[in-house]
Fold:
Amino acid sequence: MVERLAIEGGRPVREEPLPPPYPGALVMGEEEKRALLEVIESRSPFRYYGPAPQGKVSEFEATVAARLGVAHALAVTSGTAALKVALVALGVGPGAEVVVPAYTFIACVSAVVSARAVPVFAEVDETMNLSPADLESRITRRTRAIMPVHLQGVPCDMDAIMEIADRHGIPVLEDCAQSLGATWRGREVGAIGRIGVFSLQMNKLVTAGEGGFLVTDDRDLFLRAVRAHDHGYLREFSGGTPFLGENHRMSELAGALGVVQMGKLDGMLAAMKRAKRAIVEGIRGIDGLTLRPVPEGAEDIGTSVIFFVPTAKKATRFIAALDAENVGASAMYGGTVYDANPQVKDMRTATPEGCPFTCSLYQGRVSYDHGICPRAEDLAGRLVYIPLAPTFTDRDVEDVVRAVGKVAAHVPD
Ligand SMILES: Cc1ncc(COP(=O)(O)O)c(C=O)c1O
Structure:
């Protein structure tokens, strides 16, 4: 019997949607409740003082520092805040350029602009991460940081990126918002560049609803980050030169959630890697699909399965057909790059003066027009993204494999 696609009126592969892509939130339970209650009952939700501070944020920082094998960790209010604080700590400001990958979440761009510097896009390759082969051509004498993004749990080629960055004397800020627990040649991502940044927003493995943190081995950089996130204060530390900062301090409530969730990280990683391995094995041989490669030396965390189909038109049809089978898929960032966002393409800032793009200290010229990163544009359009969750059952895994096979066999080019 010929199977009909659900989108054409056939029976879907499954009746219910897959578990949603909220890994850490899906495994929240009594432990998180108890930790939050401790903070509430102490009536001390602020990390630095109160009737009986519980030290939750400090404990969270110590936990992530130990886990990642770094000297310093600083918890903040979001991944975007962590990016901004890291950029400020690195001394990135007016006149500077920061190289970011053409395919990433918009926060990478807005954090650079918020630090009053100018983002410069570089190509991604078929790993959907920053292309080392393209990176060097985007470096100018104004480049003050390189921001590789370990997209969807797959580490960038950090050997190649670090070699180029070191040769030019430019610091690397790793954006690990989507990749806590991923490793490159056995080292945790975030601990390879000068500074690494993570998010605790709800789509992430470890979540506090909102939140973020940064890690570094460089004490001076850490102290600058502490000042940048807390009005220029150091409180528990000393050293360096004061400057005006902002407030990106984490609350004890978020810290309490973070500590408990870190305890669940290994369990989530094991479940997600297992699910991803089985799905990849199951769909590897399907005609017309090209799996997103994981570079040699990279250990990814299994948060998603990504593959490419031959055309953007087919990707759109493929995604709609998978959705109808109740296997949620998407194009990720709309299957587009920077130029689909009018605020990026037209360099729209919050006020009409247009700083940092119009800043007299900025001596470069940058364009975000279609065509500046053609490889990224092509790959983004042909990508199919299936998010996974740590609660996937064997049945869920089988359904994904069956649905991909069914859709691949029937969706026209
Ligand atoms: C690659 C990347 N960078 C930065 C961020 C910003 O993190 P947050 O949402 O916590 O501000 C995200 C969030 O989704 C992200 O995916």
Observations:
- The domain at 30-264 is CATH 3.40.640.10 (Aspartate Aminotransferase; domain 2).
- Residues 265-283 form the longest helix (19 residues).
- The chain has a mean pLDDT of 97.
- The pocket of pyridoxal-5'-phosphate is lined by residues 78-80, 104-105, 107-108, 149, 175, 177-178, 199, 201, 212 (CB under 6 Å).
